[in-house]
Design brief:
The structure is a homodimer. In chain A, 41% of the residues lie in helices and 19% in strands. By secondary structure, the first copy, chain A, is of the alpha/beta class. Chain A has two domains: 70 residues, Orthogonal Bundle (Arc Repressor Mutant, subunit A), CATH 1.10.10.10; 112 residues, NAD(P)-binding Rossmann-like Domain (Rossmann fold), CATH 3.40.50.720. The model of chain A has no long low-confidence stretch (mean pLDDT 91).
């Protein structure tokens, strides 16, 4: 294992590699190369080799990478060789879409609790889960050792909701509200925003 | 303007800078620095200076950046100083959430057409827009010179939908389906996937 911190930008590419490796595995492909991965992902082979070298030796000169082995190694590095419980807060259209999203399970995550402030929504069910009021957040997060939350509330409420999350022990927030949230020491926030993706493309148009 | 291509990773950070500058502008802040921006974004000041230097000289040694000026320059570089029309395809929970999302307008984008294959949805309205069948795609995309599409269909349909889009002249796709799509020469696909964001955080837990 490495002793000096890995650049976050490198960490950020590992899920992309993992995703590509999972597709390859699903297609029954057993061996791949930095060139092949790079071509699929639009990343240079040299970059992929360099990124992976931070974590160890995963391939052999001339024979490339064993897809399943590399996939397992990256799952282990990213700690998604286990299942993380997620609290989803804000059950509007987007929250509902996330609650129905089929891509979490098998990739290390499971939404285990739904929260909203709207009394009309509290008590409703989505699949096996019942939407709870925010007064239940502390009890549920602590009781189920939840460390990850997704926030899909309006921008005006996102700050307060994030603070509530951090105060009850959430360590990572994926924020869908169109506002930048600050994480306290030892915690993390990732922002996701369709517009930043779109803007990256219009540059090339 | 630069003569050699800018690394895509640099282009990808410009929307993040733009977002931060827009928040600063909304807060009434008139001047900022690489240090200040870097602190807000978790990116080093040196990186920000280096990224911006690809596009020109935007700040003065010792006085920093004029927020509105730098914001306008990045809007121009990313070509979001105009409004791009978007076709949104797949009006499930996620499509509906995107259709309602308030963060597009003023950031260079407007959803102008909604498409779905489900006969029960075709003809329904979301706000001012009526959901259309895919048989209308070519006519609408060409008639309104739409170059950007967002795909929020199930994974099994995403490939076919993307090919339809490219065949009628769409140049950029933001793909929400949990599957990697290939873009033909001269076109672009960006993938967005909550799991890759989550996986980047669990590394640190």
């Amino acid at each position: 294992m490495p002793t000096k911190p890995i650049p976050d930008i490198v960490v950020g590419r590992l899920p992309v590699y993992l995703r590509a490796l999972s597709f390859l595995a699903a297609e029954g492909v057993q061996t791949t190369s930095s060139q092949d991965l790079g071509k699929r992902l639009g990343i240079s082979a040299a970059q992929i080799r360099k990124d992976l070298s931070h974590f160890g030796e995963f391939g052999k000169q001339g024979t490339g990478y064993n897809v399943n082995f590399l996939r397992e190694q990256i799952r282990r590095i990213l700690k998604v060789d286990r299942e993380w419980s997620i609290a989803l807060i804000g059950i509007g259209d987007l929250g509902r879409a996330l609650a129905h999203y089929g891509g979490f399970v098998d990739r290390g995550f499971r939404i285990v609790a739904l929260f909203d402030v709207d009394p009309a929504k509290i008590g409703q069910r989505i699949g096996e889960l019942e939407i709870m009021g925010m007064d239940k957040l502390a009890e549920v997060v602590r009781g189920r050792s939840i460390q990850v939350a997704m926030i899909a509330v309006p921008a005006a409420q996102a700050h307060q909701v994030a603070e509530q999350c951090f105060s009850v022990g959430i360590k990572s927030i994926l924020n869908y509200a169109p506002i930048t949230l600050q994480a306290p020491e030892g915690a993390l926030v990732q922002h996701t925003d369709p517009v930043t993706h779109l803007q990256r493309m219009t540059y090339y148009l």
